[in-house]
Amino acid sequence: MNTNATLENSPTGAGAGGAGDAPLVEAQNLRVWLPTGRRDGIQAVRNVSLRVAAGERVGIVGESGSGKSVTGRALSGLLPTNPRVRVEGSIRFRDGEEMVGASAKDWNDVRSRRVGMIFQDPLTFLNPVMRIGRQVAESIDPRRVDLPVRDEVLRVLETVGLTDVETLVDRYPHELSGGMRQRVLIAIAIAKRPDLLIADEPTTALDATVQRRVLATLDDAVSRLGTSLVLISHDLAVVGSMTDRISVMYSGRIVESGTTNEVLTAPKHPYTQALLRSVRSLTDPDTELWSIPPSLRREIDEHVALEAKEDEYEA
Ligand SMILES: Nc1ncnc2c1ncn2[C@@H]1O[C@H](COP(=O)(O)OP(=O)(O)OP(=O)(O)O)[C@@H](O)[C@H]1O
After folding, report:
1. Of 20, 54, 148, 302, which one has the fewest beta carbons inside 10 Å?
2. Does 148 contact ligand 1 (Cβ within 6 A)?
């Protein structure tokens, strides 16, 4: 049986909900197909089930191309707008409607009230021709972007460790360093006090020292707001230090889920075991290639194919 069948809440995780709590967000049997040159496109996400309790922090780890980002984008309704993108299964926020198949307007509503996003490359997310202050203000309240929210904008920017904020609000994204831009992105994401933050490789593009500081800022902001966090990263050390639970993805599937401690200290799935070993033997830190030997990779592929068959049979 696939280990993602039951995804228990961390009994020790900070703020994790109890067993009877309705999750803040729950994806069930999520399946996503994306268009490619091939006629049917590719299935990037295969039967992913994931639940995040209020205040809980869940990490999604796996190699490049395993489906982490597509899962994160599906959870935030930000998959490419292309009629050939197909999503099946279920995504529900607490007290909300089914979001698979929901309109762009419904997703906008959910994002503006409940979900903040932080992506790897702030320049693609920030508006290059809009001053920083206005971009943060729009996140606080898209209808009130003038003076009344200025104090709040300054406060949010200070919250994420930025200084000289009176000057900063009048600057444009290209005038800031990478670390500053990433902090602005965190500010924009937390300004509306979302229930859930989805951070997809939030610091990968930064150098190691800046990365640590920005992660500490994110950690601090999430703790203070009591926000739930989905942290997507190929970096097990980062995810291990910031989450209550971890789901490991391989070939579009969640192959193992458990408390962070369980997954890191007693991994059950051969892929997680290989992943943990390969972290220590990564040869080129600039790529996301994991040094899993081909014979072991074949074994893992066979194991995962067998699990997929079992899941299909059970369904
Ligand atoms: N816009 C897109 N159009 C077509 N295929 C896509 C698109 N985005 C992702 N894919 C494909 O979907 C699969 C999953 O990609 P995804 O980006 O979710 O992986 P990932 O685990 O997040 O990897 P990375 O860490 O490199 O971002 C990959 O095969 C990828 O090539």
Report:
1. 20
2. no
The token pair at 202 is 């939030």
Tell me, which fold does domain 23-280+289-314 have in CATH?
Rossmann fold (3.40.50)
Atom index in ligand 1 nearest the CA of residue 35 equals 4
Residues 259-313 have pLDDT tens digits of: 999 999 999 999 999 888 876 554 455 444 456 778 888 888 898 988 888 877 7
The structure's pTM equals 0.86
Taking the centre of ligand 1 as the mean of its atom positions, its distance from the CA of residue 107, in whole angstroms, is 21
Give the ipTM. Answer: 0.93
- CA torsion sign for 130, 131, 132, 138 is negative
DSSP state of 217: H
Q: Which of 31, 38, 40, 68 to mutate to test the pocket of ligand 1 (most atoms within 8 A of CB)?
A: 68
For the stretch 127-170, pLDDT in tens is: 999 999 999 998 887 665 555 678 889 999 998 989 999 999 99
Q: Which of 18, 23, 25 has the alpha carbon at shortest distance from 198?
A: 25
Q: Which residue shows structure tokens 């967000």?
A: 25
- For residue 153, report the distance from its CA to the centre of ligand 1, in Å: 34
Q: Which residue is closest in CA terms to ligand 1's atom 8?
A: 70
